[in-house]
């Protein structure tokens, strides 16, 4: 005889405020004022809630930060598992990861911006930096494989190439605006055209 477990009741906040909307407001505050300088009181004020209503969703400010940076990191790591990143020549897989990372940045701009400002001042931040290093390693391995296959010039180290590529991708957070008339495809095309031309070996 089988029994069905009764699901635990969902944590609920004030009607009209989901966890996603709470995160949007918190991330905006963190980006404007800095994580350390932003209090739960300020987040509650921006939402028009009491702090106790926020605690129906999260345990505190650190959990808000963790959820926010994980959202950006999860999206980036998902790119590395797509078919375009796992099959074919390494240079094409590398290009796929770069292109799709641009799409992640444009779709999750406030969250990626916050991730790039993390400096390791807390356990949550250190965990995020560790995951960023793992992502960098995946990209560096792709560059190294492309060099080994003869598609990327060998006179620049793979780790340097990886940092240059994603330094360019990450710099988009400084100036890209969703209402500026450039689509994610426009940005990805421009970035690939200007960076990969110098990477590829001449045929």
TrEMBL record:
One of its GO terms (molecular function) is DNA-binding transcription factor activity. Pfam families: TetR_C_24 (PF17932), TetR_N (PF00440). Gene3D superfamilies: Homeodomain-like, Tetracycline Repressor, domain 2. Residues 16-76 form the HTH tetR-type domain. InterPro entries: Homeodomain-like_sf (IPR009057), HTH-type_TetR-like_transc_reg (IPR050109), HTH_TetR (IPR001647), KstR2_TetR_C (IPR041490), Tet_transcr_reg_TetR-rel_C_sf (IPR036271). Residues 39-58 bind DNA. It comes from the Bacteria. Keywords: DNA-binding, Transcription, Transcription regulation. This is TetR family transcriptional regulator. It comes from Blastococcus colisei. The lineage of its organism: Bacteria, Bacillati, Actinomycetota, Actinomycetes, Geodermatophilales.
């Amino acid at each position: 005889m089988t029994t069905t477990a009764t699901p635990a009741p969902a944590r609920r906040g004030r009607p009209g405020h989901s966890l996603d909307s709470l995160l949007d407001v918190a991330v905006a505050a963190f980006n404007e004022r800095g994580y350390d300088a932003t209090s739960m009181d300020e987040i509650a004020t921006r939402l028009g809630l009491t702090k106790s209503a926020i605690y129906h969703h999260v345990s505190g400010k650190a959990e808000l930060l963790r959820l926010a940076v994980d959202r950006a990191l999860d999206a980036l790591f998902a790119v590395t598992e797509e078919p375009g990143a796992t099959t074919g020549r390494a240079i094409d897989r590398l290009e796929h990861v770069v292109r799709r990372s641009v799409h992640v940045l444009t779709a999750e701009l406030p969250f990626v911006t916050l991730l790039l400002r993390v400096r390791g001042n807390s356990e949550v931040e250190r965990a995020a930096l560790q995951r960023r290093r793992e992502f960098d390693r995946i990209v560096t391995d792709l560059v190294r494989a492309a060099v080994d296959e003869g598609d990327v010039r060998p006179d620049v180290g793979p780790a340097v190439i990886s940092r240059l590529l994603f330094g360019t991708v990450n710099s988009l957070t400084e100036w890209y605006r969703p209402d500026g008339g450039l689509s994610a495809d426009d940005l990805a095309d421009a970035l690939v055209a200007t960076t990969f031309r110098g990477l590829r070996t001449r045929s």
